[in-house]
Design a protein that fits this description.
By secondary structure, the chain is an alpha+beta fold. It has two domains: about 100 residues, 2-Layer Sandwich (Phosphorylase Kinase, domain 1), CATH 3.30.200; about 180 residues, Alpha-Beta Complex (Aminoglycoside 3'-phosphotransferase, Chain: A, domain 2), CATH 3.90.1200.10. Helix content is about 40%, strand content about 15%. It is built from nine helices and nine strands. The protein has a five-stranded antiparallel sheet with strand order 1-2-3-5-4. The chain starts with 17 loop residues before the first helix and ends with a helix.
Length: about 300
C-alpha cells in the first residue's frame, strides 16, 4: 500500500488508457498472446493495476513510479523465494518494458485463483490463522543473502512523525469517530518497547487482506511482494489486527511464538499504517479506508 510518503515524479497513468494500453503492450512485447481477452480486474490497490489476460494470466501494470520499483524487486526475488514457501506466490511469465505510453516496466504473471478474505466474514478463521503463521514462519526461515531492507522494516521510531501527524489529522475529522487519545496512548506504548535487537528476518511486510488469497476459508496464495526484504519480525504481524478475530489472533501469535515486545511493536506498526491510511484514502479508496477503520477498532478494542 502506498501511504503517500513518496510522491511520484511522473503523474499516474490515466485510467482511460487501461485495456487499450495493455492490448498494445502485449501485442508489441508478446505477440504470441496478442488477441487474448484483456479485462481490468477490480482491486483496491493504489500502486498497480491488474488486468486479466485470457484465462490463465494477469498483467500487473504500475500506475505510478513507485510501482516500478516493486516490479524490479519481484523480478529479482520471487523465483528464488517460491520454492522455500508453503503457499503459492506470483510466478512471472513475461517481463515487459516501457512502451506505448507506459513509462515503467510491467509484468505478466500466472493467474492465481482465490478471493481476498474479508474481516468479520472468514469461513475458517482459526485454520486461516495457522496458515498465515506457517507462511510468516517460512519467510523468517529464508536465508537467501543480499536481501534489501523491507519497506517499513526499520526502527519503530522512524514512523513516529508521520503517525502523529495522522492522529492530528483525524482529530480534525470527528465524524470518523476515532478515539485519538486512545490511539496516541497505544502508539506511545509501542514506542516505549525496545526495538528488535536480533538479526533481521525475511518479511513480506504488507500482509493486508488485499494481498492474501483464500479458497474455502484457507490460505492459497500471497501476492504483491513489493515491500519485501529484511527487518523487524513484528512487520509481518499485520494479519492479527487486519483480519483475524480475537481467538484466531491468539492462535496466530502462539504458532509464531511471539514475545510481548514483538507483539506490541507489531500492534503499533499495524495501527500506524491504519492511522496514516484513513485520512489519506477516506475520500478516494473505500477498500483501503474500510480496512483502516477495522484495524483501528480492533487495536483500540483490545487495549
Amino acid at each position: 500500500m502506498s501511504t503517500g510518503q513518496t510522491r511520484p515524479s511522473h503523474p499516474p497513468l490515466r485510467e482511460e488508457l487501461g485495456e487499450d494500453l495493455v492490448r498494445r503492450l502485449i501485442a508489441g512485447r508478446f505477440p504470441r498472446w496478442a488477441g487474448l481477452p484483456v479485462e481490468r480486474f477490480p482491486s483496491g490497490g493504489t500502486v498497480n493495476a491488474m488486468y486479466r489476460l485470457g484465462d490463465d494470466m494477469v498483467v500487473r501494470l504500475p500506475l505510478r513510479e513507485g510501482g516500478a520499483g516493486d516490479v524490479a524487486l519481484e523480478r529479482e526475488w520471487l523465483s528464488r523465494l517460491a520454492p522455500l514457501l508453503p503457499t503459492a506466490v506470483p510466478e512471472a511469465l513475461g517481463a515487459g518494458e516501457p512502451a506505448e505510453g507506459c513509462p515503467w516496466p510491467w509484468s505478466v504473471y500466472r493467474w492465481l485463483p482465490g478471493e481476498n478474505p474479508e474481516a468479520g466474514a472468514l469461513e475458517e478463521p482459526v485454520a486461516l490463522a495457522g496458515d498465515l503463521a506457517g507462511f510468516v514462519a517460512a519467510m523468517r526461515r529464508v536465508t537467501l543473502p543480499g536481501a534489501p531492507p523491507a519497506h517499513r522494516g526499520g526502527p519503530l521510531g522512524s514512523l513516529d512523525a508521520e503517525t502523529r501527524a495522522a492522529i492530528e489529522q483525524l482529530r480534525g475529522i470527528p465524524r470518523e469517530g476515532v478515539d485519538c487519545d486512545a490511539a496516541e496512548a497505544v502508539w506511545e506504548d509501542a514506542l516505549r518497547t525496545p526495538d528488535w535487537d536480533g538479526p533481521p528476518v525475511w518479511l513480506h511486510a504488507d500482509l493486508i487482506p488485499g494481498n492474501i488469497l483464500v479458497e474455502d476459508g484457507r490460505l492459497t496464495s500471497v501476492i504483491d511482494f513489493g515491500c519485501m526484504g529484511m527487518g523487524d519480525p513484528a512487520c509481518d504481524l499485520f494479519p492479527a489486527w487486519n483480519l483475524l478475530p480475537a481467538d484466531a489472533r491468539e492462535v496466530f501469535r502462539e504458532a509464531l511464538g511471539v514475545d510481548d515486545a514483538t507483539w506490541k511493536r507489531g500492534r503499533g506498526r499495524t495501527l500506524s499504517q491504519a492511522l496514516i491510511a484513513l485520512p489519506y484514502y477516506r475520500e478516494t479508496n473505500p477498500a483501503m479506508a474500510g480496512n483502516a477503520r477495522h484495524v483501528i477498532r480492533e487495536v483500540l478494542g483490545e487495549s
